[in-house]
Amino acid sequence: MTTLLYRYFPHLIPSETHQMLRMRRTLMATGSGLVLTVIVIVARMMGLVDMSITAFILLYSLIWLINLSFPLMISYDINLLFKDPSLTIPQLIWHTLTNTISIYLVPDLHSVFLMHYLLVVLFGAFRMKRRGFLIMGVVILSCYTGVMALLHLSGKHEHGLLSEFLGGIVFLFMLIGVSIIGTEISSLRWALKKRNSELNAVMKQVKEQAITDDLTGLYNRRHLMDILRRQQALAVRGDYEFSLCFVDLDHFKQINDQYGHKTGDEVLQTFADLARNSVREVDFVARLGGEEFVLVLVRTPLDGAVYVAERLRQAMEAARLEILEPSHRVTASIGVAQYKPKEAIEETMHRADIAVYSAKNRGRNQVVTEDNLSSLILSSLHNDADLYTD
Ligand SMILES: Nc1nc2c(ncn2[C@@H]2O[C@H](COP(=O)(O)OP(=O)(O)OP(=O)(O)O)[C@@H](O)[C@H]2O)c(=O)[nH]1
């Protein structure tokens, strides 16, 4: 049925995975409703249904209006307005009701329809828990005994009461059995669903850990290289610029020596927070290692990057760190470089790195750009500066 719908009415099949699954189940139920209708129509053609043709057509038009309303609701996302978007209980009750109508119309085939009740209960395994199965059991039993009583009272069904009673007991046991199996399937589904969401959460955590630095929560060096390659690819496509700020905290060894490693860690975390808050959402902040950090400022030319770097330097200089002595200020030296079209990303990193060295040489706590490096510093550092490779 789903395949037919795909072929002739592709626009009615939802593309979202959950909705598609709901549609498939609903079409299964609609399919079993179709089988019921065909059986009743054949029975009427054989003279087993005592109902005028007009009333019969009217009744089945109404039944199919409601039958089709379930898949249509899913097609147009109306089911999402309900607490249970699978519409399990309404569908189960509706199919129980149509099955009961079928028994009333064709009492001679009531044992066939009795089996269909069991199919309806199994349909609940997709969604229901134990309580749902209990409710459905009660609803089905009430419908069945109700319709049988009605048939006997109106004289439409002439079977002996004892055989009917025994048949009812057998059906009750079958109903209990099917409900237990349904509950088991249902609890397996819930357990799987829970395990799946736990796995997803762990996967998310593992992915995050793979790209972040444990101490500061900033991106780590490996992820920084990925970010830079993506930025480079954007710049290569044209009309895109970005800049790097290399940051090195000044005299950090002294902080470790004077206050201990733990305090040193806290200073690194404080700086990480400051750096994170000094850039835009779209920018990136990474820790290269030790007391070295990198800001990747997207869509930012050199002068914009200098502005951000200077603002961060001033914020760090002004920050009062309660973990240190009141007069102790932690400062940062920052080197800024802009990516030049067609160059290797390592070359940009190299220039930013040289700018940091220059800032240190010029007395620390300052921002130096690649533009204001003297050629002397450039040539002396060019040979021994680290090339940043992944
Ligand atoms: N607390 C702490 N210290 C670290 C960490 N990683 C590196 N360090 C320390 O950072 C210090 C870096 O010292 P240096 O490279 O000599 O630089 P500096 O003292 O900041 O001097 P300048 O950079 O020249 O201003 C070393 O003492 C490292 O042990 C860390 O994760 N936590």
From TrEMBL:
<feature type="transmembrane region" description="Helical">
    <location>
        <begin position="109"/>
        <end position="126"/>
    </location>
</feature>
<dbReference type="InterPro" id="IPR029787">
    <property type="entry name" value="Nucleotide_cyclase"/>
</dbReference>
<feature type="transmembrane region" description="Helical">
    <location>
        <begin position="55"/>
        <end position="76"/>
    </location>
</feature>
<dbReference type="InterPro" id="IPR050469">
    <property type="entry name" value="Diguanylate_Cyclase"/>
</dbReference>
<dbReference type="InterPro" id="IPR000160">
    <property type="entry name" value="GGDEF_dom"/>
</dbReference>
<dbReference type="Pfam" id="PF00990">
    <property type="entry name" value="GGDEF"/>
</dbReference>
<protein>
    <recommendedName>
        <fullName>diguanylate cyclase</fullName>
        <ecNumber>2.7.7.65</ecNumber>
    </recommendedName>
</protein>
<feature type="transmembrane region" description="Helical">
    <location>
        <begin position="26"/>
        <end position="43"/>
    </location>
</feature>
<feature type="domain" description="GGDEF">
    <location>
        <begin position="240"/>
        <end position="372"/>
    </location>
</feature>
<keyword id="KW-0812">Transmembrane</keyword>
<feature type="transmembrane region" description="Helical">
    <location>
        <begin position="165"/>
        <end position="185"/>
    </location>
</feature>
<keyword id="KW-1133">Transmembrane helix</keyword>
<dbReference type="GO" id="GO:0052621">
    <property type="term" value="F:diguanylate cyclase activity"/>
</dbReference>
<dbReference type="InterPro" id="IPR043128">
    <property type="entry name" value="Rev_trsase/Diguanyl_cyclase"/>
</dbReference>
<keyword id="KW-0472">Membrane</keyword>
<feature type="transmembrane region" description="Helical">
    <location>
        <begin position="133"/>
        <end position="153"/>
    </location>
</feature>
